[in-house]
Amino acid sequence: MSAGNNFRQFFQFTARSDPKWYPGHMRKSLKQLQSLLSITDCILEIHDARIPLSGRNVEFKRTLSGVRPHILVLNKSDLSSHKKEDKVNIVKHLKSQDPNLSDVVFTSFRDSSIKLILPKALETIHNFPRFQRGGGPEKNILVIGIPNVGKSSIINHLRKVRLNFSGDATRVGALPGVTRALQTKIKVNQDPLTYLWDSPGIVFPSLNDSHVALKLAVCKCIRDDLIGEEIVADYLLFHLNKQAVFKYVKVLGLSAPTDDIQSLLLQVALRFNWNKNVKNLATNQIEMIPNKHQASLHFLKLFRMGKLGRVNLDALDLHNQENAPKRTIVSI
């Protein structure tokens, strides 16, 4: 299925595209993270592979990175469209922007890549001098990241794999912000004795870049209702069409790709017979209309489950970075 010529080239933002969401527990947790640096051997930052260049908290870089070895884990790579060349370019760009990054790792729960995280962290710790480090001889790894990128799931998985423990040591949820306080240390390895510290997801105090805010919302790193579910669904549709990922047409039972989110949501609501009652102010009567809000939630849920295809929401940004004119430094 080929892309048409009538798709939008730019996304029209609304007043709600710049959400303000910085719960008090996030501010408190950032200070707690800083206080743990004295006993930390390695920082493990978890991020969503569908937005490898967007949404990382700049406060991490300012207050935490560079003090200890710092590994960036781009999780949920099974939901992203990265090819091998893309991954090379992503790593190259990330390290150029943050020279303190020790390594960048792509992971997914669908393969064995998750198991590589702990050996990689221990190897990095071994190769990094433990100066200005308090605490005991055990290895302490601080797990940080924005909300809903899989931090707690990764910790629980490593704990089960390395120690053969059943049950979860830390809570996991589908909504951003499930972990609301710094957890006690969680044992994940016996030899060498290694602990992970789980932490709440922390976002920017203010998301001034509308593209970043919407990408975070599409990946459910911030709550949909902060922007509006139909707006987030429209932004997702914009990216699917832009990257010619038209799997949504078959999944939703449409006749062809569309660039009109209202038309898409109406067709989905009618297909599933999703309706809601509203009051007609002119007649003072209750009327039944298609529930496009429920349809937008369904559309977003399908994408987050990987049912609409693999997408890199930063693909255009990465392309622009790679093809930007190179600066030439002239010595005089």
What does this structure look like?
This is Mitochondrial GTPase 1. Keywords: GTP-binding, Mitochondrion, Nucleotide-binding. One of its GO terms (cellular component) is mitochondrial inner membrane. The protein has 332 residues and is of the alpha/beta class. It folds into two domains: 22-197, Rossmann fold (3-Layer(aba) Sandwich), CATH 3.40.50.300; 210-322, Conserved Hypothetical Protein Ylqf, Chain: A, domain 2, CATH 1.10.1580. The chain is built from eleven helices and eight strands. The strands form two sheets. The protein has a six-stranded mixed sheet with strand order 3-2-1-4-6-5, with helices on both faces. A two-stranded antiparallel ribbon has the order 7-8. Helix 6 (210-218) crosses helix 7 (229-242) and helix 7 crosses helix 10. The longest helix has 14 residues, at 84-97. The radius of gyration is 22 Å and the shape is elongated. Residues 176-181 and 323-332 have low confidence and may be disordered.
- Quote the average pLDDT: 83
Task: List the secondary-structure elements in sequence, H or E.
Answer: HEHEHEHEHEEHHHHEEHH
CATH superfamily of the largest domain: P-loop containing nucleotide triphosphate hydrolases
End-to-end CA span: 55 Å
Structural class: alpha/beta
Estimate nothing, just give the exact number of structural domains.
2
Shape: elongated
CATH class of the largest domain, anyone? Alpha Beta
Number of helical stretches of at least 4 residues: 11
Strands across the major sheet, in which order?
Answer: 3-2-1-4-6-5
Number of strands: 8
Family: Belongs to the TRAFAC class YlqF/YawG GTPase family. MTG1 subfamily.
Function: Plays a role in the regulation of the mitochondrial ribosome assembly and of translational activity. Displays mitochondrial GTPase activity.
Organism: Caligus rogercresseyi
Protein name: Mitochondrial GTPase 1
